Every structure is written in structure tokens, then in C-alpha cells.
């Protein structure tokens, strides 16, 4: 029996036209698939109906794949692939398996000689880096920083030292409702000359991407509360 293929399918980063974020080839493939690994079924169903309002959503199979998924959950999805069914992995926003669950399924697919097909689409991390003006030749993504303020500031000092030592852009994210606290911590912790970029609502009509020194941010800090954002710093 032929094995299925695992298609890694990006989704939009926010409201707006699909065509501005996803190539036609991706939209076509989404419409061809009827089995998906997703973080949240409700969000995935809404996205698939946006791609094709005539889709019979009730005949589409969904498997939950999130940070709480066990290896047995992943094996269940893998079994579909081994039986010859193509599966699409959908992110909640942006590129799947990048700052997102799903890497274990991809790893197991490779181990079982299942074809893995990544599709072109938006990645908030890369788009933020592109638009930041900071070093795109050497960079590191750290995911979420500690929630505790003291630990967060300690981590920021560490990232600033790494940036200075390696001339490297340091990238991280935060839960949207804590964005303003994050900016405050960065400004209070980093050198006044360190460059800070905040990229919020990327690819949407509310997109706001700003790069300034810590001292400039301190003079005037816009409100980024409850907006999906990426943070980048580079020491002078």
C-alpha cells in the first residue's frame, strides 16, 4: 500500500484576504485534502470554510495536535498516513511546526519514509526579521521568555549579551495581553543604545512594525496590548 503525504500548510496571521498571504497552489491543496491535524477544530473549520464556503465540513476529519498531545495521539495521525491518506497540518496562525506544535509528527513521518511537503506562507518570525532592519544573517528565536518579571529581566540581559557578543538578533514572543509589560521590561533592562523592534498584527490592516533604540522607546511607547506581536533586539 502506498503511503500518504504530510502537507505542512500555513494559515493567515490575521483577518484579511487569503490571496494576499497564501499562493493559489496552497489554497488548491487545502481544498483537495479531507484530513487535517490541527490545534483547535473550531478555528480549523472556520479557516477551511473561508477557503471554500461550499466545502462539506462534516465529511472532513480532524485530529487534535497541540502542546498537550501525547505520542499516542501523534501515532494515531501517523497511522492515517501509513494507510495511504494524505494529511494536512494546519497552524492556528502562520507556519506549522515553527514556534508551534507538530514537529514530532514531522519527525515520525521522516522516520517512516513518509513524504513531507512544506508549503509557502506567512511566518510572523521571518516577516518581523525582514522588516526590522536588524541582522538577518545571524539570529536566534527563543519562544516565550519567563513570566516572572525578575526572571524575564535576567533573561533579557542574557539575550543582550549574546547579541553583543555574536552581533546576533534575538527574537522572542509574548502572550498578547502581556505585550506592554514585555516592552517595559526590555526598555528598563537593555542598554539605551540597544535596538528594539516590535512587529504587531503582521500582514493585517492594523500592522505596525517599529524599530527604535531603547532610549527612544522610553520616550514614547505605543499601546500594543492584546495584539499578536514579535519582539526583536540587537545590541549596538
Q: What is the secondary structure topology, with strand pairs?
A:
Layout lengths: L4 E5 L14 H9 L2 E4 L2 H11 L9 E4 L6 H12 L4 E4 L12 H9 L3 E4 L5 H9 L6 E6 L4 H18 L2 E5 L5 H11 L5 E6 L7 E6 H6 L9 E6 L2
Helix pairs in contact: 3-4, 6-7
Global morphology: elongated
If strands are numbered along the chain, what order do they take across the biggest sheet?
3-2-4-1-5
Oligomer: single chain
How many angstroms does the end-to-end distance come to?
Answer: 58 Å
Order of helices and strands: EHEHEHEHEHEHEHEEHE
What structural class results from the helix and strand content? alpha/beta
Number of helices: 8
Largest sheet descriptor: 5 strands, parallel
Overall pLDDT, averaged? 95
Number of strands: 10
Q: Helical proportion?
A: 25-40%
Give the amount of beta strand, in percent.
Answer: 15-25%
pLDDT < 50 runs, ≥5 residues? none
What does it look like?
- The protein is α/β, with parallel strands linked by helices and 236 residues long.
- The chain is 36% helix and 21% strand.
- The chain is built from 8 helices and 10 strands.
- The protein has helices at residues 24-32, 41-51, 71-82, 103-111, 124-132, 149-166, 179-189, 214-219, and strands spanning 5-9, 35-38, 61-64, 87-90, 115-118, 139-144, 169-173, 195-200, 208-213, 229-234.
- The strands form 2 sheets. Strands 3-2-4-1-5 form a 5-stranded parallel beta sheet, with helices on one face. A 5-stranded mixed beta sheet has the order 6-7-10-8-9, sandwiched between helices.
- α3 (71-82) packs across α4 (103-111) and α6 packs across α7.
- The protein is elongated.
- The chain starts with a strand and ends with a strand.
- The model has no long low-confidence stretch (mean pLDDT 95).
Amino acid at each position: 500500500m502506498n503511503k500518504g503525504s504530510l502537507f505542512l500548510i500555513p494559515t493567515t496571521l490575521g483577518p484579511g484576504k487569503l490571496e494576499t498571504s497564501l499562493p493559489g497552489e496552497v489554497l488548491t491543496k487545502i481544498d483537495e485534502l479531507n484530513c487535517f491535524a490541527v490545534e483547535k477544530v473550531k478555528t480549523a473549520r472556520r479557516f477551511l470554510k473561508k477557503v471554500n464556503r461550499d466545502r462539506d465540513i462534516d465529511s472532513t476529519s480532524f485530529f487534535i495536535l497541540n502542546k498537550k498531545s501525547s505520542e499516542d495521539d501523534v501515532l494515531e495521525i501517523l497511522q492515517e498516513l501509513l494507510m495511504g491518506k494524505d494529511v494536512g497540518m494546519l497552524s492556528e496562525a502562520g507556519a506549522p511546526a515553527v514556534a508551534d506544535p507538530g514537529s514530532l509528527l514531522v519527525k515520525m513521518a521522516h522516520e517512516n519514509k513518509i513524504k513531507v511537503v512544506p508549503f509557502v506562507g506567512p511566518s510572523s518570525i521571518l516577516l518581523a526579521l525582514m522588516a526590522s532592519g536588524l541582522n538577518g544573517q545571524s539570529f536566534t528565536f527563543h519562544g516565550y521568555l519567563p513570566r516572572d518579571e525578575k526572571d524575564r529581566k535576567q533573561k533579557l540581559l542574557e539575550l543582550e549579551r549574546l547579541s553583543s557578543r555574536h552581533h546576533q538578533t534575538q527574537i522572542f514572543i509574548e502572550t498578547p495581553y502581556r505585550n506592554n509589560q514585555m516592552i517595559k521590561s526590555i526598555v528598563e533592562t537593555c542598554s539605551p543604545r540597544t535596538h528594539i523592534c516590535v512587529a504587531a498584527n503582521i500582514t493585517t490592516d492594523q500592522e505596525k512594525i517599529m524599530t527604535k533604540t531603547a532610549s527612544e522607546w522610553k520616550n514614547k511607547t505605543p499601546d500594543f496590548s492584546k495584539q499578536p506581536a514579535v519582539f526583536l533586539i540587537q545590541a549596538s
